[in-house]
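Re: that chain you flagged

S.,

Sorry for the slow reply, it's been a week of failed gels. I finally had a moment to sit down with the sequence you sent. For the record, here it is as I used it:
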Amino acid sequence: MTQTILDKKSTWIKIGLIAAGITMPLWLGADEVGLTFLIEQLETNPSGDTLMMTAFLLVMLNTVRALPHYLGALLLGDELGYRLQRPWLKIIVPIVIIPLVYAIINVYNPLDYYFGGPALLLVTSIVVLQRIAKGRLRPIIKSFVFSQLLFGIQWLDTVIFLTPFSFGGGPISTKVKDIAVSLGFETTLSFYSLVLCSIFVGNAIVLAIYLTVSEQKWTMSQDLNIARGEMIESRSGREAMHLVHDLKTPLALIEGLNSLIQMKTTDKEIHDYTEKISDSIQSTSNMVSEILYDERKNWCTLVYYY
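Prediction finished late last night. Pasting the structure tokens below so you have them in one place:
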């Protein structure tokens, strides 16, 4: 019952992340983070420093707004695939949910929430990440790796020569790139954007592979320890069984000698002693039989008192 409640809570958290991503443009936009002010500065007093700061702020804004629904879709796919024993859901759920989120946002958002090259690359990266991880990465680690991928790929929106390939087609990205062209900084902006993209994407890939291998080694080590423990337990059990079985030989000898004493004496007191010895031998023999043979085990009923 408790596990079911936890599963439902976990699912609703992921759905909540997707819902947060849908509503994010309502309360987090260019005006709220000061991006509009920087663009106005660029138009009135253009400079390279202000351009790079504007580009960085634009990438951060796009990353923060996209992160909740991308992570929510990724983790929801993981959970549904695991709970329903359908691994393909880990890929299908994000592929369906992410474009749907963009479509919902564009229904109420006056600005076009652009589903272009970066979004397609991010969806593709989810597929690749799932293939690399193969269920070995914990959700928090997978979230960290994907966050770096998201931040790195968002830099492609500010690479000017990628514009014809559906990168940076949104109104703000287009305006920033137009200003960069007018200032003669198109090559510089594209170069720095590609460098930052390569750093974060490369780091995410290396981290994903390293953590996947580490997790696999840890799992193998745990399985080996469990197998070693079972082997030791099995060996100890066999040794105990042999030891208990060997007890039957001296018990039989003691029983034979005790019977011989009973036959050789008429002393009542000695007979009483031998009877007690015989009872003890029988009790010990019964305990040995219970250990050796399952059909001889005596089951007991536990009674709880409140």
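What I noticed first: Residues 300-306 have pLDDT under 50 and may be disordered.

Talk soon,
D.
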